[in-house]
């Protein structure tokens, strides 16, 4: 058997696992591993400018490909800088393996230089973690880490590797295990056939059904099945923020996103539904509004791969634990072979009702924002970019108003195209995530929708884009304030803008982009919007920072009424309430 | 409601901290917790007592099951079971008190396991309720120090918790 050092073993195990890309940042405790990376060819390493950027880039890579993202950082600050990105991946169930250097075993616990208890720090935000105690266990640990990260409800796994374990002077026999048996970990597979039968019967008897699909459908590769099923039944579909793209955004059965900034038709239909089919969604508080007012007349079917997600906040009438793919396939089979059919007249009435809601306040039946002013409206910027990219771009986003405008106005027809931090709401996510997506899909258009607040949280990654030549488009909806914070302060704090404005301190983003070797475009006048956007997107081979000055007073609507509102209680504009 | 949950988990470093961390992270309550390796050295058995309504207990067991280190678990309070806790207590015992304490110990089927001229160390095993009753019977003025093991439990009859 081949003899390898711990450092070489780790890299070899990654190769054997099929890894070809690592995002990372070197440092003392990780140097043996970095040397092993230098001495091989098949794995490409992308040097980021901050470890948070490495985790977000790996996350973007994972969300857009379905493969686990891999991160390598050093101990101490390297590890703690990765924490925000790990938490982001954890909240959205993204497969990721984070390898962190650690001080040598005999120094652990001595407050050594750059020592942090990484397994302890990351414990509440990982699916699992390992502290490698000797070199011989490296192959098995790597195998387990990827298996755990990728299966069941995916999530991040940390492998903490003490420096002396990777010592190049000590060699051990290397063998990568082909099979894995873990008695304590058996991810869910097929759903219970009796429960599926009950769910099918309930759905067939529905008069006002809604399919509510979340990120689990994207992660679990269930989009095609879901689309077939919804079209077969002709039932309306709403997606969560994480689920956008799970059902085609341009399909007439699509009601738009639901929840806090969901469409009037989606939230109102949910409220009046008699049967809700929840698939790979977790009844997040940004979806349900006040739980005890949630969908009062609805029976709820909940499909999820994670039993702990079921009946956590909203009790399910028919829980089904299983992978989205297998459960939806079984359901579809049952619908096709069933002699019973939905009550067509009830479904027609239901659609008529929904069409009426759409006409009255729907986001897509008429512009629900000003179209006659001098200022550029953020919504029309997203619509313009949708047109220019023919609805086929990978869109990453940061967190705030721009994120909601993008979610509302860019229709995603395919899964894995909309990449944003939904659960944790991490500002700074968008740019590094876009770089991860661009590396995975070099021939595709990748747009990072951001704001002048969020972009400054990971702006250093503009330098990574230069080094690896990653021509992404950065679309900054610049409203010269922390827009979503300001919106809340205006709505709930009588307009006291506590620390949400920059007082003339914003950088010149055009010059900043140029300093990194990129192109900068500033758009201030409404009449220039389309032409300048066209120009910017025509630059296929350059990273372009498009700084669009939008109406700073614009709010995101609809917005559910809080606290104590139901799904259907929404502000539709600054003055109009349902 | 008070529940006794018994958990078989991998005897790995960090496993216990994951269980304890889960409880603090999700705002669950731990009344007592005991843990020790089993006859199979790769497994530990942990018994914890918690309080919550059915919904909360369901979430607790689901989330415990989700931990990678947890192999199996059972809510002992769902069926008939045996619950035991060990109490060690140092009691002041001078003069007439010595006989009086001895009588209480006998009534509760405890044992005096150490003696000095002015003190008894008493061991009592039983349910938490019984130990509470014993301490009450002693009266506060005589108690110098109390240590309780936390609850261990096992199902009655043929039911077993094993891999």
UniProtKB/TrEMBL annotation, chain B:
Q: Which EC numbers characterise this protein's activity in its record?
A: 2.2.1.6
The record's Gene3D superfamilies line, in alphabetical order, gives:
3.30.70.260, ACT-like. Chain A, domain 2
Q: Name one GO molecular function term.
A: acetolactate synthase activity
What are the entry keywords? Amino-acid biosynthesis, Branched-chain amino acid biosynthesis, Transferase
Domain ACT positions: 4-78
The reactions it catalyses are:
2 pyruvate + H(+) = (2S)-2-acetolactate + CO2
InterPro entries associated with the record: Acetalactate_synth_ssu, Acetolactate_synth/TF_NikR_C, Acetolactate_synth_ssu_C, ACT-like_dom_sf, ACT_dom, AHAS_ACT, AHAS_small-like_ACT
Cite the annotated pathway.
Answer: Amino-acid biosynthesis; L-valine biosynthesis; L-valine from pyruvate: step 1/4; Amino-acid biosynthesis; L-isoleucine biosynthesis; L-isoleucine from 2-oxobutanoate: step 1/4
The UniProt function text for this chain reads: Catalyzes the conversion of 2 pyruvate molecules into acetolactate in the first common step of the biosynthetic pathway of the branched-amino acids such as leucine, isoleucine, and valine.
Summarize subunit and interaction data from the UniProt record for this chain: Dimer of large and small chains.
Q: Which PANTHER family match?
A: ACETOLACTATE SYNTHASE SMALL SUBUNIT, ACETOLACTATE SYNTHASE SMALL SUBUNIT 1, CHLOROPLASTIC
Describe the family membership recorded for this protein in Swiss-Prot or TrEMBL.
Answer: Belongs to the acetolactate synthase small subunit family.
UniProt-recorded name of the protein: Acetolactate synthase small subunit
* Gene that this polypeptide is encoded by: ilvN
């Amino acid at each position: 058997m081949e003899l390898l050092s711990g450092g070489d073993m780790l890299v070899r195990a990654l190769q054997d696992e099929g890894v070809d890309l690592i995002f990372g940042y070197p440092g003392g405790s990780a140097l043996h591993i970095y040397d092993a990376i230098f001495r091989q060819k098949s794995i490409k390493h992308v040097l980021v400018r901050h470890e948070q950027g490495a985790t977000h880039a790996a996350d973007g890579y994972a969300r857009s490909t379905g493969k686990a993202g891999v991160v390598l950082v050093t101990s101490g600050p390297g590890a703690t800088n990765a924490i925000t990105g790990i938490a982001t991946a954890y909240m959205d169930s993204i497969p990721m393996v984070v390898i962190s250097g650690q001080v040598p075993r005999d120094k652990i616990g001595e407050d050594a230089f750059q020592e942090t208890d990484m397994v302890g720090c990351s414990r509440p935000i990982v699916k699992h973690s390992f502290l490698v105690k000797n070199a011989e266990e490296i192959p098995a640990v790597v195998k387990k880490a990827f298996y755990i990260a990728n299966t069941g409800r995916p999530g991040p796994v940390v492998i903490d590797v003490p420096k002396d374990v990777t010592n190049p002077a000590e060699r051990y026999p290397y063998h990568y295990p082909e099979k894995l048996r873990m008695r304590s970990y058996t991810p869910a597979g097929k759903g219970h056939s009796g429960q599926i039968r009950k769910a099918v019967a309930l759905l067939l008897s529905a008069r006002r059904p809604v399919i509510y699909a979340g990120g689990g459908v994207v992660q679990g590769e269930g989009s095609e099945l879901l689309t077939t099923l919804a079209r077969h039944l002709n039932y309306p579909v709403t997606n969560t923020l994480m689920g956008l793209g799970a059902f085609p955004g341009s399909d007439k059965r699509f009601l738009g996103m639901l929840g806090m900034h969901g469409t009037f038709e989606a939230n109102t239909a949910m409220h009046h539904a008699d049967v809700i089919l929840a698939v790979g969604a977790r009844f997040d508080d940004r979806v349900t509004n006040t739980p005890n007012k949630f969908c009062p007349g609805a029976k709820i079917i909940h499909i999820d791969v994670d039993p702990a997600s079921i009946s956590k906040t909203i009790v399910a009438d028919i829980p089904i634990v299983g992978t989205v793919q297998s459960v939806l396939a079984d359901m579809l089979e049952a619908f096709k072979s069933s002699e019973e059919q939905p009550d067509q007249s009830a479904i027609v009435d239901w659609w008529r009702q929904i069409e009426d809601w759409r006409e009255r306040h729907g986001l897509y039946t008429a512009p629900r924002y000003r179209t006659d002013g001098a200022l550029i409206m953020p919504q029309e910027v997203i619509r313009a970019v949708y047109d220019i990219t023919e609805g086929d771009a990978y869109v990453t986003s940061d967190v705030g108003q721009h994120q909601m405008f993008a979610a509302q106005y860019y229709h995603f027809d395919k899964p894995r195209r909309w990449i944003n931090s939904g659960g944790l709401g991490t500002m700074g996510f968008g740019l590094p995530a876009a770089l991860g997506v661009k590396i995975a899909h070099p021939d595709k258009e990748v747009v990072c929708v951001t704001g002048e607040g969020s972009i400054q949280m990971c702006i250093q990654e503009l330098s990574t884009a230069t080094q690896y030549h990653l021509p992404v488009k950065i679309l900054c909806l610049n409203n010269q304030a922390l827009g979503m914070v300001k919106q809340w302060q205006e709505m709930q704090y009588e307009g006291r803008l506590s620390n949400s404005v920059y007082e003339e301190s914003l950088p010149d983003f055009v010059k900043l982009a140029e300093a990194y070797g990129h192109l900068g475009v500033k758009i201030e006048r409404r009449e220039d919007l389309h032409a300048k956007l066209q120009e910017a997107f025509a630059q296929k081979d350059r990273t372009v920072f498009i700084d669009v000055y939008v109406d700073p007073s614009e709010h995101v609507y609809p917005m559910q009424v809080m606290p104590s509102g139901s799904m259907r209680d929404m502000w539709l504009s600054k003055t109009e309430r349902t | 409601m008070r529940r006794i949950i018994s958990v078989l988990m991998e005897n790995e470093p960090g496993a216990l901290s994951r269980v304890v961390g889960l409880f603090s992270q999700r705002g669950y309550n731990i009344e007592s917790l005991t843990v020790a390796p089993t006859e199979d050295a790769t497994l530990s058995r942990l018994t914890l007592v918690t309080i919550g309504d059915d919904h909360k207990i369901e979430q607790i067991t689901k989330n415990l099951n989700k931990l990678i280190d947890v192999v199996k678990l059972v809510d002992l309070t769902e069926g008939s079971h045996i619950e035991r806790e060990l109490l060690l207590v140092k009691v002041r015992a001078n003069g007439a008190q010595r006989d009086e304490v001895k009588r209480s110990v006998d009534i509760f089927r405890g044992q005096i396991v150490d003696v000095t001229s002015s003190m008894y160390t008493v061991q009592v095993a039983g349910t938490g309720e019984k130990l509470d009753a014993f301490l009450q019977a002693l009266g506060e003025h005589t108690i110098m120090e109390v240590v309780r093991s936390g609850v261990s439990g096992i199902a009655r009859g043929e039911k077993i918790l094993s891999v």
